[in-house]
Amino acid sequence: MSKPQPLLEVRDLKKHFHLGSGKTLKAVDGLNFAIERGETFGLVGESGCGKSTAGRTIIRLYEATGGEVLFNGENVHGLRGRKQQEFRRHMQMVFQDPYASLNPRMTVGNIIAEGIDIHGLYTGKQRKARVSELLQAVGLNEEHANRFPHEFSGGQRQRIGIARALAIEPQFIIADEPISALDVSVQAQVVNLFKKLQKERGLTYLFIAHDLAMVKHISDRIGVMYLGKLVEVTTAEELYANPLHPYTQSLLSAIPIPDPEVERTRERIILQGEIPSPLNPPSGCPFRTRCPMAMPECAAVMPEFKEVKPGHFTACHLY
Ligand SMILES: Nc1ncnc2c1ncn2[C@@H]1O[C@H](COP(=O)(O)OP(=O)(O)O)[C@@H](O)[C@H]1O
Ligand SMILES: [Mg+2]
Predict the structure, then answer these.
(1) What's the CA angle centered on 31, arms 28 and 33, to 5 degrees?
(2) 165 lines ligand 1 (CB under 6 A)
(3) Which residues fall inside 5 Å of ion ligand 2, going by CB?
């Protein structure tokens, strides 16, 4: 039996920014991964490693420098005109900052209905009913439609951002650090809302976060990025139980363990130094300058991103 076609497939995706100085910043430099229908794929890595650029390039807010994005088997980066418009309906984005991403002069109802209006889906009573349904789906109520963003808390604003993304019934949502700006007490509620909506609507997510603790409870599979590249991809369970890449191991060792006895005695891997500038990345493996396991080979040759166990991919000379 052949495997079902993934909803999204990213092949050797690249986004390079050409800076005024004649330099090239390789923000995203050759990503390969696929996301199955109904799955949540967590994309993780330190600030500046290229997560947002990857998300924005996939949804085509940026033109890719190279590679392909297949949605339902079709290369969406080649689409123009009506077909592009059609694709836009199926993919939506939720942004990190719920303060900056909502227009302060628009009512919540008009913000949520923006996509409905652009795509001409509903008008009048139907539009109003749709907005009410969306507000309820995200845990708000229909009276909120006439209010303005500043009247809401951070968590509520993120709920509005989610309702806006859902309005045109997309199949796929890219959530770019949707809980990073929220109070810790509110983060779990918003994660639970994402899960509930996924179940109810059969959604597929690319869920971006800067640490592994945040994606643990929502991801089916996880990709770890470092300096524009994926260093490891596997199921969430396997990643937490058997992390292969030294970078993933260091990220996991930074997450506190609830058991105080284990927490007190366990070994932590503290990384030396800062992330190198993507304008001037190290030769060979980009992680080698901070890697506790670095070998001479690592400076000479970029390790290939390959499947080292069934479904478990990593780019490291140790394997
Ligand atoms: N529009 C842009 N022009 C030039 N450089 C950019 C642009 N957007 C992001 N970058 C650079 O690309 C790298 C990756 O950024 P970003 O994708 O925002 O990382 P992350 O979301 O993981 O924090 C960073 O070095 C950042 O400075
Ligand atoms: Mg970002």
Answers:
(1) 145
(2) no
(3) 52
Give the pLDDT score at 310. 96
Structural domain includes residue 313: no
Report the CATH number that the domain containing residue 41 is assigned in CATH: 3.40.50.300
pLDDT band at residue 287 under the 50/70/90 scheme: very high
Q: Which domain holds residue 164?
A: 8-275
Instruction: Say if ligand 1 is within 6 A of residue 55 CB.
Output: no
Dist. CA 100 → ligand 1 center (Å): 18
Distance CA 280, CA 23 (A): 10
Is 31 within the bounds of a domain?
Answer: yes
Query: What residue type is 304 in one-letter code?
Result: E
* Mean pLDDT across 95-108: 90
Residues 313 and 30 sit within 8 Å (Cβ to Cβ): no
25 lines ligand 1 (CB under 6 A): yes
- Choose among 208, 299, 211, 284: nearest CA to 247: 211
Residue type, 235: T
From the CB of 167, is ligand 1 less than 6 Å away?
A: no
Spacing, Cα 4 to ligand 2 middle (Å):
31
Tell me whether residue 305 is in a domain: no
Per-residue DSSP letter, 51: H
pTM: 0.93
Alpha helices in the chain (DSSP H): 51-58, 81-90, 108-112, 114-118, 124-137, 154-166, 184-201, 212-215, 236-241, 246-253, 260-265, 296-300
Total domain count, the chain: 1
User: Is 53 close to ligand 1, i.e. is its CB under 6 Å away?
Assistant: yes
* Distance from residue 223's CA to the centre of ligand 2 (Å): 15
Q: Is residue 13 one of the residues assigned to a domain?
A: yes
